[in-house]
Amino acid sequence: MALLDFLAFALVATLLSLVMFFANDFLKNSQSATSVWQPWVTAIGVIAAAFFVVWQQHMIAKREAEQRSRKSVAARAVMPAALAEICQYAQKCGHILKDIYPRTADHCLLAGSFCIPEFPSDAIKVLRDCIEHADKPHIEPIAGCIKRLQVQNSRLTSLLGKPSETLIHIHQIDSALRDVIELHACCSDLFWYARFETEEPDMTIEQSIFNSATICNIDEHSFPSLFKYMRGIKLIN
Question: Structure pTM?
Answer without folding.
Answer: 0.72
